[in-house]
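Now read the record:
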Amino acid sequence: MLEKSCGLTVDCVAYDLEDSVSLNMKAEARQNLASHLSKSKPAGVREQAVRINDVRSGLAEDDLAAVCQSPNLETIVIPKVDSASDIRFVADYLAHHRSPTRTSGPHKPPNIIALIESAKSLSNLSSICAASPLLSGLVFAAEDFAFDLSITRTPSLTEFLYARSAIVTAARAHDLASTIDLVCTSFRGAEGEKILEEECINGKNLGFNGKQCIHPNQVSIAQRAFAPGEKEVEWAVRVTVADGKAEGRGAWTLEGKMVDVPVVRKAKAIVERAEVCGIDVAAIKELWRDQKPE
């Protein structure tokens, strides 16, 4: 599986040391992963992450010891984060063990991603988000959350609406870059792809900017769903081009609709995201270079 990951084109690959590794295989998994992370990062993988065991398991410190010196480790994913102390435990470990004098790799410490999986974690979101400057995002773990609350996951996902909205809101309030939505367990056949696409669109509309994928077949669908659409990018480019000619006006119109500072900020964010997604924004700008504010 480690070798297969090298052929992916993804934003992030999260290698797991937690649930997918049985207790008697933990040591071997750590060794294999450390060896893998010592190699050059695959060209198609933007970020390499490791999901460690939760800090109360008694296994997290051994996980961190195995991988924290890896030069290509960019993110630590912490499961079952119930409080800010879980984040600080990992941040403090990294501060003491991944210093410039102890690693041959980049001096910058890895980012931290927190998995939100319980009622307690949801109630502590604000303090979790403020726990460390290394924290760069939140991930909603729906199955564990459903277990904790004794609820059943349904196709509508309405039972998770409060939790998902709270996670996105907290992440935005604390300027965290990543808000990653729940896993879609369907990935085979046309029906599975349809369910995945619907879940992605639903998550995007709630404010999530990414989705957990459990199979390579899910990647392209998620990437397409979370990338700005063709009409969305065209609108954003037209707004940004026209705004450059607005001569300081606080508000103007485009096709009869008001454009003010918040709208321009949104348009610029869409353009930036489109560029990250590999969309040829320059060509669209050239097409609309004569756009003027109305």
